[in-house]
Amino acid sequence: MKKISQHLSDSSIKEEKNMDIIKGGVTAAKGFEAAAAAAGIKYKDRTDMALVYSQAPCEAAGTFTQNVVKAAPVKWDQKVVKSGSKVQAVIVNSGIANACTGAEGYGYCEDTAVAAAEALGISGDGVVIGSTGVIGKQIPIEKLTAGIKVLAEKKNDSLENGTQAARAIMTTDTFEKELAVTLKVGGKTVTIGGMAKGSGMIHPNMCTMLAFITTDADITKEALQKALSGDVDDTYNMISVDGDTSTNDTVLLLANGLAGNPQIRYGSEDYKAFAEALHVVNEYLAKKIAGDGEGATALFEVKAVGCESTEQARLLAKSIVCSNLTKTAIAGHDANWGRILCAMGYSGAQFDPEKVDLFFESRAGKIQIIENGTAVDYSEAEATKILSEPEVTATADVKLGSSSATAWGCDLTHGYIEINADYRS
User: Subcellular localization, per the record (predicted)?
Assistant: First the structure.
């Protein structure tokens, strides 16, 4: 099955005023370095550890999985972020999730922080951790600590090292995911760069998804956390691949202040500009995760418009994008609109189904499928052509108000079963 998601058009990136898209990821901002290493934690033929390092201590913000079962690194990072400790390094491994591993697994987080502190010459309180992979297996700590030494020796601030780090954190992902933007704050150039991984066990309320975002902005911890927390509901929490909420979801945002801008405080105009730029990075990474769903051949975007409230719009959009029947219809390029209306009906949102309009759109064109809850006289051949593109959008208009929301997912193919049936092997 041909994988096309890495070639999804970037033309849909909504550049805000006073903001530019630039090349790079986690090393694009001043003072950030990265590295990748092959530690043999699970994979024998590829890198499986990454380091993100800041030359100066950072304010840290984070959002985490809403699964009651939380992996050891999630618990560790929650403690670090809540404590207010300045963070200077992120250690990430792929292949083993360090989830459901008890006190031993949590102890390995402490061992990781100690090893990183020693190798990098920083405080162990300033080390956060990410893990992704198989649940229930213990980390081979000797391999991990050996990998940390390699990472410390290889780190630099090149864009290539940032890309290598983005590749090292992948599991079933088929390509690395990274983006960087710049904006002006008080006459100074501020950069925000990020990398993410995610392909399966992806569902709203965070997913088997790790995202690490770096910025050289001088910004208060309060403003940093509010900017991140306020954005996840419209980005990472609006994607789904398979309906499984992971144990390891983590988004970390680090700010080292090296841009030299006037400090950004919550509620200011500079804060609003920073939050808008952060949203661009988060939305881009979230869409790349959705489009790289396991076995997927298409990014499926769902827009719920004409809603009474944002909450109603989110419920409708997420219900459609999470519908397995709808996702298989997209895989078959079949305009089976009844599945979409059905998914809207069990979403929990109240609306009049006899007022709903539905449209499909892609680079091949736009077509209306239903009007006021019933089918219009449309061409099945034209609909199939539109649904055969690598990016497909469904827009549902419930004609109740002016609120809207967008969710992202992918088609559901035989490839998803093939990947997950033998994941541990």
Answer: Cytoplasm
Annotated binding-site ranges for substrate: 171, 197, 208, 294, 420, 425
From the list 208, 215, 245, 406, the catalytic residue is: 208
b/e code 242-271 from CB counts within 10 Å (16+ = b): beebbbbbbbbbbbbbbbebeebeeeeebb
Hey, what are 194's tokens? 């990020």
User: Of 46, 65, 72, 26, which is closest to residue 198 (Cα–Cα)?
Assistant: 65
Domain containing 232 equals: 5-291
- 44: which residues sit within 8 A by CB, 6+ positions away? none
Q: What is the pLDDT of residues 129-163, one digit of tens each?
A: 999 888 889 999 999 999 999 999 999 999 999 99
Is 220 a catalytic site residue?
A: no
Assess whether 155 and 286 both reside in one domain. Answer: yes
User: What does pTM read for this prediction?
Assistant: 0.86
Whether residue 306 is found in the same domain as residue 284 = no
| Measured torsion, CA atoms of residues 37, 38, 43, 48, in degrees rounded to the nearest 10 | -10
Is-contact 100 247, C-beta < 8 A? yes
Tokens standing for 297?
Answer: 């051949």
The rounded distance, in Å, linking the Cα atoms of 323 and 359 is 17
CA distances from 338 to 343, 369, 392 (A): 9, 10, 17
As annotated, the binding site includes: 171, 197, 208, 294, 420, 425
User: Are 276 and 163 in the same domain?
Assistant: yes
